[in-house]
Amino acid sequence: MNEDTIEKFYQEGLEERLISYLAKENGIPLEKAMDIYYRSNMAQQIHEGSYGVQYLDYKVLARILMITESYLFENGCTKSKIGNSSCTPEIS
Q1: Which of 75, 71, 62 lies closest to 24 in space, CA to CA?
Q2: Is 8 helix (H, G, I), strand (E, B) or coil?
Q3: How many Å apart are CA 64 and CA 55, to the nearest integer?
Q4: 8 A C-beta contact, residue 86 and residue 78
C-alpha cells in the first residue's frame, strides 16, 4: 500500500465513525447524519486535508461540527438536487 491509499482508507473510516457518532448523539437516522456531514464545511476540510483536521479524533470533530455548523441540524435545512444547501447560518 502506498501513502495515498492508506490516507484514503483512514479518511473513509474517519467519516464512517463521525457520521455514526453524529447520528447517535443527535438521535437522528444515519441518512440524516450523512446528509448533514456531507453538506458541512468540515467534510470539505477533511477531504482536502486542510489544517490537518483529518487527524483529530472523530468525537472531537463531531463536537466541532455540532457547535460551528449547528444550523445544519435544523429541520428546515435540506440539500438540493444539485448539491447546494438551502440553509444558511443565522447571523446574530
Answers
A1: 62
A2: helix
A3: 14
A4: yes
Helix runs in the chain, H state only: 3-26, 30-39, 41-48, 58-68
- CA separation, residue 23 to residues 5, 18, 33, 37 (Å): 27, 9, 5, 10
The pLDDT value recorded for residue 89 is 53
pLDDT profile of the chain (92 residues), mean per 10: 83 93 95 96 90 91 95 68 47 46
Q: How far apart are the first and last CA of the chain?
A: 48
Q: Residue 70 corresponds to which cell in the numbers above?
A: 449547528
Output the pLDDT for position 92: 45
